[in-house]
Write a structure and sequence with these properties.
heterodimer; A: about 110 residues; mainly alpha; two-stranded parallel ribbon; 3 helices; globular; B: about 350 residues; alpha+beta; 5-stranded mixed sheet; 11 helices; 8 strands
């Protein structure tokens, strides 16, 4: 009786957390949403807007690096350029107090 | 004037960066041109970097951090993290790297590239990063007003604020005002009022004050001003590297170092050492490093020092010479000869 209770608790705790932590689930999630995302971008900015993706499994430091590389490369785009962030990344804007008012986009 | 919320790309055009919005099924950023015509601003000029930049940085590490003992935990040009073995910190290589980028996004991308390597190697594989950015050597204002606040926000946003410590160095480093430091403490030297408090607590306080251009027991306002100006110079000099530089350290090791030594002891000791060497000869040495001349050894021509300053030596700087001096204008000419980036 006691062991069956323990098994039930283990199933409740372990199974959902494995599902949440499994990186392949996140990849599948983004793959499903990607066509929808690309259509939305196309509708808003036109068919020729360059879209770049960051690896879904990127670490915070790798995401930050890719963001700044992308910003630096934006000079090559005549109009808008789009960078798709990993689902694990939370994009929010930070402005500093200096005169240039730099926009920064945090990762994770 | 760059519009608020914009960054300047490598062609000198301003780009507004904004989130795509919550209606998007995936999170994304959009870079949008600002204004009708591009480029709107003068493009920043990147420089090519080669081994000369690294040589200068290594010569500076050898002269100041190791030779003058400004960092007791750096006892070699190639490694740091010494004298902390009992705190589970072992010496590991310093990563010297360079970026010729003149744009903020470019230098931040270079910063994160080296940080990725540091985090992959771990504490045992890399003790710190010395990232030189020669394109910013004449841009002290932008270096501390734009680059370092952006670095701070970027590091904190990435959730690595407790992993990494970032320190600001520049050829024209001048400790920012207290008002600026209240908002942007990240990576900067303590102001003169903080240093003064530590000097006042030193066992050789009177001799130090005299060495700094003040009278030992005179609190007249002009004396206070003279001492504060001298401390402003002494603090700033500790952050003057041959090139604009981002120094990245492990936060855990910084905390271990803080536990090992009290900040007051370290900074007072450094002020004492700078007085002993003499500001004039120190400025000449720094100027020579910036101009690519062969690095001087530590046998500087010291000036006389008021007796009583703790430290075994009998020679100390002339108090009058301690007053801050205008930095010698760097000799114009090719800063870096053509060559590839050798980071």
């Amino acid at each position: 009786m006691r062991s069956s209770w323990l098994l039930a608790i283990a199933l409740v705790v372990v199974v959902p957390s494995q599902a949440l932590l499994n990186p392949f689930d996140r990849v599948v999630l983004s793959t499903i949403k990607r066509p929808q995302f690309e259509q939305r971008v196309k509708d808003r900015f036109g068919a020729n807007v360059p879209v770049q993706y960051i690896d879904d499994l990127s670490t915070p430091q790798a995401t930050s690096m890719e963001i700044w590389r992308w910003v630096d490369r934006c000079a090559e785009a005549e109009g808008e350029a789009v960078l798709c962030l990993p689902p694990s990344c939370t994009a929010k804007e930070v402005r500093n107090s200096s005169s240039t008012g730099i926009a920064l986009f945090p990762a994770h | 004037m760059i519009p608020p919320g914009c960054v300047v790309d490598s062609r000198g055009a301003a780009k507004a960066i904004s989130p795509l919005g919550q209606e998007s099924p995936l999170q994304a950023l959009v870079a949008s041109p600002v204004g009708a015509s591009q480029p709107k601003f003068v493009a920043p000029v990147a420089v090519e970097v080669n081994s000369e930049a690294r040589h200068r940085m290594q010569a500076w590490v050898g002269r100041t951090l190791v030779g003058l003992g400004m960092c007791p935990f750096t006892q070699s040009v190639t490694e740091s993290g010494h004298q902390l073995a009992d705190l589970d910190v072992l010496p590991a290589p310093i990563l010297y790297t360079e970026s010729g980028d003149a744009t903020l996004p470019g230098v931040l991308a270079a910063f994160w590239t080296s940080v990725v390597e540091m985090l992959e190697k771990g504490e045992s594989g890399m003790s710190s990063i010395i990232l030189a950015a020669p394109a910013w050597d004449d841009q002290w204002h932008s270096w501390h007003q734009d680059v370092f606040p952006a670095l701070e926000a970027s590091v904190l946003a990435s959730g690595l604020g407790r992993e990494l410590g970032v320190v600001c160095f520049h050829p024209a480093y001048d400790t920012p005002s207290p008002a600026f430091l209240r908002k942007n403490r990240f990576g900067h030297m303590h102001g003169p009022s903080k240093l003064r408090g530590w000097v006042d607590g030193a066992r050789d306080r009177d001799a130090l004050i005299k060495g700094l251009g003040g009278e030992s027991r005179d609190e007249a306002s002009e004396t206070v001003v003279a001492v504060d100006e001298a401390l402003q110079w002494a603090g700033s000099y500790q952050r003057r590297s041959p090139h604009a530089m981002i120094n990245v350290l492990w936060s855990r090791q910084l905390e271990a170092a803080e536990n090992r030594r009290a900040s007051d002891n370290l900074y007072v000791r450094n002020v004492r050492r700078l007085l002993k060497e003499g500001p004039a000869s120190l400025e000449v040495a720094a100027s020579d490093e910036r101009n690519g001349l062969p690095p001087l050894d530590l046998a500087f021509a010291n000036q006389r020092v008021p007796p009583g300053i703790a430290n075994d030596d009998t020679t100390v700087a002339d108090p009058a010479a301690v007053a801050p001096k205008k930095r010698r204008r760097r000799r114009k000419g090719p800063l870096l000869s053509p060559g590839g980036q050798d980071s």
